[in-house]
Design goal:
By secondary structure, the protein is of the alpha+beta class. It is built from 18 helices and 10 strands. Strands 2-1-3-10-6 form a 5-stranded mixed sheet. A 3-stranded antiparallel sheet has the order 8-7-9. β1, α2 and β2 form a beta-alpha-beta unit. α2 packs antiparallel against α14, α8 crosses α9 and α17 runs antiparallel to α18. The longest helix has 18 residues. The protein starts with 9 loop residues before the first helix and ends with a helix.
């Protein structure tokens, strides 16, 4: 990993927000792609006496938080603008942000999940000038992450990252179950899970209201079998043979899990894996680093492997990755300071430090940063490297908007699978319930 000691001062900042990039490349480690950063960027001058407050999700990788905080400190030293950072659990960011938006007070900015900004677009500052300039400066936004921040031609948020999701498993346990390599299709995957359970080294995937892991798993189940919540025109399409096949498959997988996964949140599969209770799940790269940094978990760290989800009957890889954006609320008293802060954080000098600090946990939103050395620094990073490029938006096959945001926030798809696999409802009843709930949003 490249280490850089950058110096920042007020004069450089005021000039640099118009084009920091000339000095923003990690020395000798990145390709000429960063010549794109020579393009003109916007300039935002903080208001007199400005201070800011950011609401963000609790980090799963310490280095990510440390890099973000260090960059924030550099911004404050350069501008005098203090930035307070509040943290909430992944599940609590959404309701906290919604309250702030609708009440008109609280944090000035928020790191949101998925299409949450579409739940209150009229409560957010138009950041088209900032996002457009950043896109031009850094090679353009990835289409998938951009979609979570853009309403029509207007940016209501700035894309932040895609948190890659991959299957994590114990290599020795897979081999002990009779598999020399990880299955590439859903049929083989099911047989692996059955064999691992028989060996006392079961799998476990969240069927609870886990913002990231639960949604990622549920959408993969549906999409891999060719199902979708809505069609291209936003018509409700969940009641289909493909959705039935996905549920029946999910039931068979669930039978190989340890008990209790129907109540799991984002932290639970991590804990179960590191405690040796399960040997296969899906997670961000944070699972590997949690093991690697704990002297008592070195055996697990050395045995852990990561791979992309197997391909289902649909015939191609279809995955949802956790996406995050940053929005500025209309009630922010210092919107220019907020834009200046975000502009600073997205310059190459700061963004590359953050991506490296996150150790492949956060996949860059801008194409100019895809050659950051973090992606080739460790083989475990490979399945996470293309998360921003390959993600399928949760609103598929319809457009993102208030309806898709509502369905996601209401955990409709997660609940459909949970109801069916636990026997709370039959397959037909679970689909019918999901159909009713989806229709409430797509009216």
């Amino acid at each position: 990993m490249t280490t850089n000691n950058w110096t920042i001062n007020r004069r450089r900042f005021l000039a640099g927000t118009a084009g920091v990039a000339a000095g923003g490349i990690l020395a000798g480690s990145l390709s000429p792609r960063h010549a794109l950063a020579q393009a003109s960027a916007a300039t935002f001058t903080p208001e007199e006496g400005a201070s800011l407050r950011l609401l963000r999700w609790v980090p799963f990788v310490t280095g990510e938080e440390e890099a973000w905080n260090a960059n924030t400190k550099a911004f404050t030293e350069a501008t005098g603008v203090e930035v307070r950072i509040d943290q909430e659990s992944w599940e609590d960011v959404r309701p906290k942000a919604a309250v702030a938006a609708n009440v008109g007070s609280g944090p000035d900015m928020v790191m949101s999940w998925f299409d949450d900004p579409f739940q209150y677009p009229d409560k957010l500052v138009d950041v088209t000038d900032l996002a457009t300039a950043l896109g031009e400066q850094h090679g353009g936004w990835y289409e998938g992450v951009e979609g979570y921040a853009k309403q029509g031609d207007k940016f209501i948020a700035v894309p932040l990252c895609a948190i890659g999701n991959a299957v994590c498993y114990r290599d020795s346990h897979m081999k002990a179950a009779g598999f020399s390599e990880f299955p590439k299709d859903t049929a083989g995957f099911l047989e692996l899970c059955k064999a691992m359970k028989a060996n006392g080294t079961p799998a476990g995937f969240p069927h609870g209201k886990a913002v990231g892991d639960g949604n990622n798993y549920a959408h993969w189940l549906l999409w891999s079998h060719g199902g979708k919540t809505v069609d291209e025109n936003g018509g409700v399409a969940i009641n289909s043979p493909e959705a039935r096949a996905a549920i029946e498959y999910a039931k068979e997988l669930y039978a190989t899990f340890i008990p209790g996964t129907e109540s799991w949140l984002d932290i639970n599969n991590n804990r179960a894996f590191l405690a040796g209770q399960i040997s296969l799940t899906a997670n961000g790269v944070s699972l590997y680093y949690a093991a690697a940094k704990d002297p008592t978990l070195q055996e697990i760290a050395e045995d852990l492997r990561a791979t992309n989800f197997p391909v289902g009957p649909v015939g191609s890889s279809v995955e949802l990755h956790q996406t995050s954006t940053i929005s500025i609320f209309n009630h922010c008293q210092y919107p220019q300071a907020a834009k200046a802060y975000l502009n600073f954080m997205y310059q190459a000098e700061q963004m590359n430090k953050w991506i490296e600090g996150a150790s492949a946990y956060c996949c860059q939103p801008l194409r100019a940063f895809e050659d950051n050395p973090v992606w080739t620094s460790n083989p475990i990073h490979a399945p996470y490297a293309k998360a921003s490029e390959t993600l399928r938006p949760n609103g598929y096959a319809g457009p993102l908007g208030p309806a898709s945001a509502g369905v996601m926030a209401d955990y409709v798809l997660v609940d459909m699978f949970a109801e069916a696999v636990t026997g709370q409802r039959s397959t037909e009843e679970a689909i019918a319930n999901a159909e009713r709930r989806i229709a409430r949003y797509y009216r």
